[in-house]
Write a structure and sequence with these properties.
Helix 2 packs parallel to helix 4, helix 5 runs parallel beside helix 6 and helix 6 runs parallel beside helix 8. Helices cover about 50% and strands about 15% of the residues.
């Protein structure tokens, strides 16, 4: 069986545009795989939200690691983990990466903002760390890995903080030299102009990853023309689940009954099937004889 790290590396390095989608639990990982997803993005925002926490490292890295373990168990597709800004210095990050490798993740993405991080879409002051410090985190993670296929993605926040294209390119070159396997260039504009300016100047020196949360109307063909390797749909399962749970809760409180909601609720039997209860029944017949 091909390792998750190898599958993810092939996705990232492929000349063909591919996509992975967000998951934040064992159940959402199963649903994404059932839908045909090639890989998963273990989103910091989505995992934090599912825990009822804010996306500013209120969830500890050990709590995130627990969620990753359930996701790895729940799906047989590779997981790229959102490592935020690395949970501290180089030592915190390399320990986190070592534990991700033990749990079976395919790779990790680290962003070059300070710790604790703030979500890139918040209208608050965002601060980048120095290039040398960030390169040290990448090098430390690469040096501790046992599996050479484990993917380290360096996420550049220059456009988010307003330092522009030249800063983004300088950082990309430095991160490449430090050992990054791919560059995640981030933008919160409603169009892909910043992304295109970067890819034009970068000229495919390393695979480029994007998350078009705000510029999602851009045609996929345009991303292909830019040389993008991987698109991350970074928070959509979480957002869809919030909408569905809000509607259900409001209906139950308003009417006192689930009557009228049948079309929007899966059968309990489908939940049993999704979570593998049939295998447990077969196992009980084999092992739990009385």
């Amino acid at each position: 069986m091909t390792r998750a790290t190898t599958v993810l590396r092939r996705l990232v390095e492929s000349a063909q545009l591919d996509a992975i989608i967000e998951a934040h639990s064992g159940l959402s990982a199963k649903l994404a795989e059932q839908a045909g997803a090639k890989g998963l993005w273990a989103s910091g925002l989505a995992i934090s939200s599912a825990l009822g926490l804010r996306d500013c490292n209120e969830a500890s890295w050990t709590q995130v690691l627990d969620v990753i373990e359930y996701m790895v168990d729940g799906a047989n597709i590779p997981i790229l983990v959102d490592g935020d800004s690395g949970y501290g210095n180089f030592n915190n990050f390399r320990r986190f990466v070592s534990k991700l490798e033990q749990r079976g993740a395919g790779g990790v993405c680290i962003e070059d903002k300070s710790f604790p991080k703030s979500n890139s879409f918040l209208e608050v002051e965002q601060q980048l760390i120095g290039v040398d410090e960030f390169c040290g985190k990448i090098k430390a993670a690469k040096d501790i890995l046992k599996d050479p296929d484990f993917v380290i993605v360096a996420r550049i926040e220059s456009f988010i903080v307003g330092t522009g294209l030249d800063d983004a390119l300088a950082r990309a070159h430095a991160y490449k030299e430090a050992g990054a396997d791919a560059i995640f260039i981030h933008s919160k504009k409603s169009n892909a102009d910043e992304i295109e300016s970067f890819t034009r100047a970068w000229d495919r020196q390393l695979p480029v990853v994007i998350a078009p949360t705000t510029y999602f109307r851009t045609p996929l063909d345009r991303f292909s023309e830019m040389g993008i390797s991987l698109v991350i749909w970074a928070n959509h399962l979480m957002r869809a689940s919030v909408h569905a749970m809000q509607s259900c809760a409001e209906h139950l409180v308003r009417t006192g009954s689930p009557v009228g909601m049948e079309g929007s609720l899966v059968a309990v039997a489908d939940v049993f099937k999704l979570t593998g209860v049939d295998e447990l029944i077969r196992a009980e017949q084999l092992y739990a004889k009385r």
